[in-house]
Amino acid sequence: MAAVNNFVWGPVMLALLMGTGIFLTIRLKFLPWRNLGYALKSVFKKPDPSKKEDKGDISPFQSLMTALAATIGTGNIVGVATAMVLGGPGALVWMWISALFGLSTKYGESVLAVKYRETNAQGEMAGGPMYAMKNGFKIKWIGSILAVLFSVFAVIASFGIGNMTQANSISSSVLNTFGVPTWITGLIITTLALVVLLGGIKSIGKVSGILVPFMAVFYFAAGILVILINIENVPAGVAQIFTMAFSPTAIAGGIGGSIIASMLTAMRWGVARGVFSNEAGLGSAPIAAAAAKTDHPSRQGYINMTGTFFDTLVVCSITGLVIASSGVLGTMDAAGKLISGADLTIMAFESALGPIGGWIVTLGIMLFAFSTILGWEYYGEKSLEYLIKAPIVIKAYRFIYCLVAFVGATTALQIVWDFSDTMNGLMAIPNLISLLVLSNVIAKECFDFQDNILIPEKRALKLKKNK
């Protein structure tokens, strides 16, 4: 299974993910980059009360927070540390590069999700890559096969990468830091998940709208504090990040300790962990985008696109800079192995804050991982709904999903993790095909909407001149 997993997340898949992002960025005339300021403003813009209610289940902000709930997970704490150990400090630069092109990918898949969404029997929105394939492809049978494949992969991945691995991260970090038995943590996770998830997307949206901003700001503030305490190391750390990102030969020493990595290694691990963290191209986040109340696919496309910005360019960067400035990268444990993952991030925070640093990282893992459990339930639910149109099955799925969280919290099943990791990667294949086949549709929606961005800006400029 590990061999299959290595292939799925190997150089070919990463090249496809990056290649699709580069192609869409050029195809859209760099508008996702040029309009990033507009997109960020749109996230925090209050809805106009005079406007009639748009179709959808939750607000655009709640939709983004639901998507961010699923994407801001343990990858932002554990994944960044792993990338910097295996790929050197330069892996962080390749995470940023993959995120920049990931903006266009996330924009494109969210546009398609809103454009081709449907209303189900309960009056809720149902959308995502599977509906884009089903309704957007001219050759219907190809679209239908790809849609079924995507949905099957997403349902399986939801139990593993979106649930069991997250619950296990919470229980093991709480056990290591506070000594709480895993079964107690598992019981708490299951109960809290049941309370939120049985209420459906409106409940998930409300909780995510409060939890995600709180946890992101809390982690960001703690990270900035560590960086400021270690400020004298920041210039050397940043210099090594950029030097090792583009050096064709292996380099070691300095603030990177005994880490040795070439440019290709940095690229491989940076792109892999970047994509794994922000999920651009995997097709998961647009399922949440489809639930948003919006009047234009492109408007929600821009809002959801910022998820990649917040996830990788903000949260992952904080973890990376904390590690780079702390001087702990390259530290060996008692057995002579390089310290990696959550242990390395905890050590980096503790370098400045003492034991409190460890508690902050543990709390971060708890909040990030629990929010991922909530977001991924919705992805799995909507994918299952595409395959089986029976409300009783969806309710059963919600209940079983919560119980599986208990299993994940109390058992470390490596084969399950590898299998779900593979399914998570396989989701990308039909989604990337869909993005390339329907790239003309994405471009049309993008260019049609551009006037909505430019005209208010021109109007504001005119008012400024008249004053």
User: What's the CATH first level?
Assistant: Mainly Alpha
Question: Low-confidence stretches at least 5 residues in length (pLDDT < 50)?
Answer: 252-257
Sheet of most strands: 2 strands, antiparallel
State the order of secondary-structure elements, H for helix, E for strand.
Answer: HHHHHHHEEHHHHHHHHHHHHHH
Average pLDDT number: 85
Please report the number of helical segments: 21
Global Rg: 22 Å
Distance between the termini: 67 Å
CATH architecture: Up-down Bundle
Total discrete domains: 1
Describe the overall structure:
- It is found in: Cell membrane.
- With 467 residues, the chain is mostly helical.
- Strand 1 and strand 2 (125-126) form a beta hairpin.
- It has 21 helices and two strands.
- The chain has a single domain, classed as Amino acid/polyamine transporter I (Up-down Bundle).
- The chain has a two-stranded antiparallel sheet with strand order 1-2.
- It is globular and about 60 Å long.
How is the topology of this model organized?
Layout (H helix, E strand, L loop, with lengths): L1 H7 L2 H17 L3 H4 L1 H8 L16 H12 L6 H9 L4 H25 L2 E2 L5 E2 L2 H8 L3 H39 L3 H16 L2 H30 L4 H12 L17 H16 L6 H5 L7 H30 L14 H13 L1 H33 L3 H20 L3 H13 L1 H10 L1 H28 L1
Summarize the structure in short.
With 467 residues, this protein is mainly α. It is built from 21 helices and two strands.
Keywords:
single chain; 467 residues; Amino acid/polyamine transporter I; two-stranded antiparallel ribbon; 21 helices; 2 strands; 1% strand; globular
